[in-house]
Amino acid sequence: MTSRQEECVRPSWSDDHLDSSSPPEIKASYFDEKLGAWVLSRYADVLAAFRSPVLVPTGAKGGSKKAAPNETIRLKMRAETKAALSLRQLYKWQKILTSEADALTQRLPLGVPVNLVEKVARPLCLTLAVAVTKADPKDASHLQSLARHVSAAAAEPYDTKIGASAEAANAELRGCFHAGAEALRDSGFVALSHTLPCLLANAWFALLAHPQQWRRLHQRPALTAKAMEELLRYAGLTRLLFRRAIEDVDLNGVPLRKGDRVILRIAVANKDPERFPRPNEMDWVHQGKGHLALGSGPHTCVGGSLIRMAAITITRPLLERFGWVEITGTVEWHGGPVFRSPATLPVCLYETIPVI
Ligand code: HEM
């Protein structure tokens, strides 16, 4: 670790928390002396950063991302992943997931507390992770427990203890996957078995906070795909991304110098009224398109089509079967500055509105 990395201060914003009582403030870009970085939160500024070839992804502490590939290798990785995520292949995984999600949803009990994260999101995402990465199903729960450490460090990269257990888990995970596209091996397993349940927990928390919206989707579940785009905007998982300037550049009037660190507050940019007219409302008829929840530009998430397919396939049976869902207990949150989501989502499920 370099001295520059050690100086990195952990951002502590909470105005972009999904359960925050007030919406985030969209500020013009500024240099934060304490964080030692430029902070971008306007949609237009974050989008410009995504598109700029002189702003390269870095880790949260400013060092290069672990095993950051050179450009040729990265482009090869993207092409190889896209080929592995062909429509035909996505359709095969969707079939597996649909039958598992339908069966599991039918087994959920009515009118008693159920933790949606533990009972629905985690098992279904693990099924998908095993199918996609071709992991041995008998190793699934051990791999999932290793992946938990890696995902926790991605969410909270400033905690050295979490980082150390992630490193050990990562080393073991790397040795467990040998076939298929690089992005669909150990890192794909972590993203699918752990990060995806976090993404679903955020989306479901947002829907549960808007019971009328849940009911609208119950009545018209075919709208789930459209609603999911707006849920990604409104309740997307990733809060921050990090860049470093490799040359001097003027970014929408911000004079970046070579070596400068830049923090992209993407969850805040997704609530910018200049881009989304009613940013703090969920409105899948008029909003959602153009969100930055999975990045944008040359580094946009290469697993985006897989994530969307999975999020829709897992959520739709819940919307179809249950006309009314209530949070019944305390929602516990986990994660950190990079992503944060409900660790538990205790709910009571009803097929129709209960008569009290
Ligand atoms: C589960 C939820 C996921 C979330 C929230 C997520 C989010 C993101 C975001 C925001 C970026 C942009 C990073 C940047 O601009 O610096 C990204 C990039 C990336 N994602 Fe995902 N992702 C997810 C799942 C996956 C999966 C399943 C895969 C496996 C294919 C994947 C592979 C990648 C890769 C390889 C990149 C880097 C692309 C590049 O630099 O060219 N992601 N992801």
Supply database-style keywords.
356 residues, alpha+beta, Cytochrome p450, five-stranded mixed sheet, 12 helices, 12 strands, binds protoporphyrin IX containing FE
Structural commentary:
Residues 1-22 are annotated as: Disordered. Belongs to the cytochrome P450 family. It comes from Alloacidobacterium dinghuense. Residues 1-19 have a biased composition (Basic and acidic residues). 46% of the residues lie in helices and 13% in strands. With 356 residues, the chain is α+β, with helices and mostly antiparallel strands. The longest helix is centred in the middle third of the chain and has 23 residues, at 186-208. It has one domain: Orthogonal Bundle (Cytochrome p450). The protein has helices at residues 3-6, 43-51, 71-84, 87-107, 116-133, 140-155, 160-174, 186-208, 211-219, 224-235, 266-269, 304-321, and strands at residues 30-32, 37-40, 55-57, 113-115, 240-245, 249-251, 254-256, 261-265, 324-327, 333-335, 340-342, 346-350. The strands form four sheets. It has a five-stranded mixed β-sheet. A three-stranded antiparallel β-sheet has the order 4-12-9. The structure holds protoporphyrin IX containing FE.
Strand content: 5-15%
Number of strands: 12
What is the average per-residue confidence, as pLDDT, rounded to a whole number? Answer: 94
> Spatial order of the strands in the main sheet?
1-2-8-5-3
In this structure, how is the largest beta sheet organized? Answer: 5 strands, mixed
User: What is the CATH superfamily?
Assistant: Cytochrome P450
Overall geometry: globular
